[in-house]
Amino acid sequence: MPEALLLAQLAGHDLAPLTAPRDTARFATDATRRAGAQPRLVLRPVNTAGVSAALAACFAVRRPIIVQGGLTGLSGGARPRAGEVVLSLERMTKVAPVDRIAAQVEVQAGATLQSVQEVAQAQQMIFGVDLGARASATIGGMIATNAGGIRVLRYGMMRAQVAGLEAVLPDGSVIDAMRGLEKDNAGPDLRQLFIGSEGTHGVITRALLRLHPTPSLQINALCAVPDAARAQELLAHMRARLGPLLSACEGIWPEVYEGAAARIGTPPLPPGAGLYVLLEVQGMAEVLREEAFEAALIEAYEAGLCSDIVVSQSASEYDKLWALREACVAYTFSLGELVAHDLSLPARTLPEFLDAARSLLARIDPEAQPFVFGHIGDGNLHYIVKTGKGPEVTGGLNALAARMGGSITAEHGLGQDKVRYLPLVRTETEIALLRRLRAALNPADLLGQGRVLPPE
Question: Residue 339: helix, strand or coil by DSSP?
């Protein structure tokens, strides 16, 4: 049995292997709920040496392998294919003490986002990326997919949070780029070869993450606006008044707002608006006065940019508005089998895209129901559709976003499920370059087969 031979080669390493079907079943799918092949072997290393040994052993016998973190992905990147060994980082969860001078923290790749947030909070600091799956999403997976979340407007994508990185190549070689220097021009930045590569260039095992001072003042507000065009005007107005203190700008369309609001109790604003915009500012009380945020909102109201506003007046009200946003995910997941799209669009095209998308759905499937929410501040829409014509709808929406200068994936990655659409947003020359990079780092194509790049 190939699994037995692999385990024999790996004797002496703490890999906590699993082979029984009852034990490996939980590794067969991800947040998409689509069933992958149930793995016959799951390796669970506790450190970089174990990852290196596992990859080297699989490389020697040309056995395909897939790395898994918290299994919160929505593009099938971690969903196993037949014959793949699963390399789970669920035991690599260490978070070192915070380096307050450098404002950095070292973590193993299997550490959850929530565990990093808790360690940072204990030192009056915060981590710049936040998302609803914080309790299960792992840092390694977030780096590998260049995760975004709700505060990209202020802190940037996951790429901006990585001060250092360690990764293991498919042959077991270890790349140590953990210096954490803000300035280091000794050649190209090797970290960038792994950030966003979705585990196809190597397995991220450790990272140095940047932290930020905890804001002493943070306020949010929910605004009712008539449409996406007015929402963009509101965003431009708030940016002009508050600059980089504006940390989030989220959009919730009516079909999602009412369902999400029902999950948290009383709606913060009455239904009936064309769109609801959640704004947040973060800063130091000495620099950001609460009145400045409220004054900017009053100006927006008087200018006709919004018709109704509710501003959080306490920590509980602040948390309730964010609970509304997080309930959007739970609500749409509760609706059964839906077709999800994670689209990125240039800001100027957002209203046009929404109109064109509605027309497109009407042509393809008159019974289709869209459920839309997302990150207006960075042009990322989660466009989810209830339809019986999923492939046609997905192909049409992806092509529409591409024609408008957008992308088929803003923060969820390509995985297995979106690979076929890559030529919509990357030229032949770009794809050829991606293939050359992959061939150099993953020459036998054993790590992450069938993901990120379409078959030749």
Answer: strand
